[in-house]
């Protein structure tokens, strides 16, 4: 009977112990003593100015303060606290690395912290400044985690009331260096179309996702593969993304604290149509002056009344008998006016010396605008459709009806649209040794040419 009683009481005791265990992260923060000591502070900017290109240990009794903006509660931050110099409209921000799990229980978002710097290390990595302990590898020092047994010797909690943090509202194109390591709210963004349906992160892998605005400007968002929300599906609407702005070399990145930092409840951006096709755009002249190779050019004409963006358009050159593109000119930056011309030169300085004005587009030598008369030139729209062709791809132009060596290929005024098949009757062609139907009469610049005039 005594043995049965002992077993019975043991079971009860185990039940009591198990029922008292913490079952989730919703438990009370430990009671830590705050500090109301008035310290003489230096600014974060002054601390950064101490960095000389190498990780250094701070020897002076210096103190900085800041307001906590990160939280490791949901697992997207680990052994790191980001802080900024003011709760709103900050001038600067920084991070401290430390060996402290569940740091959010000690340092809440919005809480002012005081950091005693003496003995800590200051460094910079990928454009981001940080303080902490030291990590040594092969004799090289870098900032590492501050050991847990000294964390509270260096990082104090201020007794000042937690007034919360007001993130800096910003559009992607407005992001700049002054916002690094601060809390920002990036407005009017959505997850990139190609990533919809994906999870926040791949399990146990740091994963980069992409925010994009309605102008297709992008911002990387960094998610931990160990975050509590790792397996959740990315939101499919548009809104504001709040997080700490960081940098990886030359690329800005955003780290959110939890899924609520993505407040996406608006309809996604409408697809912006900015690529157009038109058969009214065509090649109007290709020039290879007999007396000056530097005066070569290609001219494109718009026979319609409406201006057209050439976003996605290109001009390709197939050198001699090549079946593959030898060089290409991207025309995306340009708009061609209604009944207007674009003159493209491979030598802008010489072009101006010869013709008296600057070309509309200046490109490199060996480009489609620098043909020596036996190449084939193709105008292609944004949808990879051939709109216009001069010559026969795969056929060297020498001694053919599409040779313009030492001369010019001039589109007849009766032509008002491009032609994806070379048709000699649409052209007047001057050269030195061309086939029947061409004019064997070399042309000299500037007398025999009129770029920019149709």
For the structure shown, list the relevant keywords.
454 residues, OB fold (Dihydrolipoamide Acetyltransferase, E2P), Immunoglobulin-like, 9-stranded mixed β-sheet, 32% strand, elongated, DUF5689, Lamin_tail_dom, Lamin_tail_dom_sf
What do these coordinates show?
- It is built from four helices and 29 strands.
- By secondary structure, it is mainly beta.
- It folds into three domains: 114 residues, Beta Barrel (OB fold (Dihydrolipoamide Acetyltransferase, E2P)); 99 residues, OB fold (Dihydrolipoamide Acetyltransferase, E2P) (Beta Barrel); 160 residues, Lamin Tail domain (Immunoglobulin-like), CATH 2.60.40.1260.
- It is elongated, with a radius of gyration of 34 Å.
- The termini are far apart.
- The N terminus is likely disordered.
- This is Lamin Tail Domain.
- InterPro entries: DUF5689, Lamin_tail_dom, Lamin_tail_dom_sf.
- Pfam families: DUF5689 (PF18942), LTD (PF00932).
Indicate the topology:
Blueprint: H1 2-20, H2 44-48, E1 56-57, E2 63-68, E3 80-84, E4 93-97, E5 112-116, E6 121-125, E7 128-137, E8 140-144, H3 151-154, E9 155-157, E10 168-170, E11 183-191, E12 207-212, E13 218-223, E14 238-248, E15 251-255, E16 262-266, E17 281-287, E18 297-302, E19 308-309, E20 314-318, E21 327-330, E22 335-336, E23 341-345, H4 348-355, E24 361-362, E25 376-380, E26 386-390, E27 408-411, E28 427-431, E29 439-440
Parallel strand pairs: 4-7, 10-11, 13-15, 23-24, 28-29
Antiparallel strand pairs: 1-6, 2-3, 2-5, 3-4, 5-9, 6-7, 7-8, 11-12, 11-14, 12-13, 14-15, 14-16, 17-18, 17-27, 18-23, 19-22, 20-21, 20-25, 25-26, 27-28
């Amino acid at each position: 009977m005594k043995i049965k009683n002992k077993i019975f009481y043991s079971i009860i005791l185990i039940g009591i112990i198990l029922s008292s265990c913490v079952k989730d992260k919703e438990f009370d923060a430990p009671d830590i003593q705050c500090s109301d000591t008035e310290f003489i502070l230096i600014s974060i900017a002054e601390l950064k100015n101490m960095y000389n290109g190498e990780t250094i240990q701070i020897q002076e009794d210096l103190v900085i303060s800041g307001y906590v903006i990160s939280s490791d509660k949901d697992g997207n931050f680990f052994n790191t606290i980001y802080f900024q110099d003011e709760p709103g409209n900050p001038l600067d921000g920084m991070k401290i690395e430390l060996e402290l799990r569940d740091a959010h229980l000690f340092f809440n978002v919005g809480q002012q912290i005081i950091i005693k710097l003496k003995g800590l290390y200051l460094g910079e990595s990928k454009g981001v400044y940080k303080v902490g302990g030291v990590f040594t590898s092969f004799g090289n020092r870098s900032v590492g985690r501050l050991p847990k047994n000294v964390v509270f010797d260096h990082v104090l909690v201020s007794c000042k009331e937690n007034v919360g943090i007001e993130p800096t509202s910003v559009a992607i194109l407005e992001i700049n260096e002054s916002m690094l390591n601060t809390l920002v709210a990036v407005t009017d963004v959505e997850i990139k179309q190609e990533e919809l349906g994906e999870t926040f992160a791949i399990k146990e892998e740091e994963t980069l996702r992409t925010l994009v605005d309605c102008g297709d400007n992008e911002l990387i968002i960094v998610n931990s593969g160990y975050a509590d929300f790792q397996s959740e599906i990315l939101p499919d609407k548009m809104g504001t993304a709040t997080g700490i702005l960081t940098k990886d070399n030359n690329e800005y990145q955003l780290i959110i604290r939890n899924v609520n930092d993505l407040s996406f409840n608006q309809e996604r951006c409408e697809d912006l149509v900015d690529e157009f096709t038109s058969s009214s755009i065509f090649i109007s002249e290709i020039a290879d002056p007999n007396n000056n190779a530097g005066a070569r050019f290609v001219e494109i004409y718009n026979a319609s009344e409406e201006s057209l963006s050439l976003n996605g358009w290109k001009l390709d050159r197939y050198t001699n008998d090549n079946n593959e593109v030898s060089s290409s000119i991207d025309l995306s930056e340009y708009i061609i006016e209604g009944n207007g011309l674009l003159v493209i030169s491979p030598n802008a300085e010489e072009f101006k010396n010869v013709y008296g004005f600057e070309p509309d587009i200046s490109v490199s030598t060996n480009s489609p605008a620098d043909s020596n008369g036996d190449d084939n030139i193709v105008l292609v729209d944004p949808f990879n459709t051939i709109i216009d062709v001069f010559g026969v791809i795969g056929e060297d132009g020498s001694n053919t009806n599409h040779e313009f060596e030492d001369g010019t290929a001039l589109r007849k005024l009766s032509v008002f649209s491009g032609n994806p098949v070379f048709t000699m009757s649409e052209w007047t062609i001057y050269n030195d040794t061309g086939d029947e139907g061409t004019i064997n009469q070399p042309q000299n610049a500037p007398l025999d040419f009129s770029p920019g005039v149709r």
